[in-house]
């Protein structure tokens, strides 16, 4: 792995950690989602400090260069994160639908109670 790639990974991991921490504090980002990004940044930091792990993983996967392995891992993690977020959206849509039914039911009960008084 070239020194340029190591420095780029190191810089990217540090910037990601700072940015995510800023978003958690300033914009009240949910901490559990911030932790995912900080863990990813720490993994990138670890791989930039110990490049032989990334090179070994590249050889194991049959990928020519370590930078391509970084791209491959990033694409996989983006795909997994996207799937997770779609699962969360689906669950929240169901919850919103249930809450809408509950609000309509309670509203109807209140209107009926006001008519009876």
Automatic annotation (TrEMBL):
The keyword Membrane applies. Residues 89-116 form a coiled coil. It comes from the Bacteria. Keywords: Coiled coil, Membrane, Transmembrane, Transmembrane helix. The keyword Transmembrane applies. Signal peptide: none annotated. Pfam families: DUF2304. InterPro entries: DUF2304 (IPR019277). The chain crosses the membrane at residues 6-25, 37-57, 69-87. This is DUF2304 domain-containing protein. It comes from Anaerorhabdus furcosa.
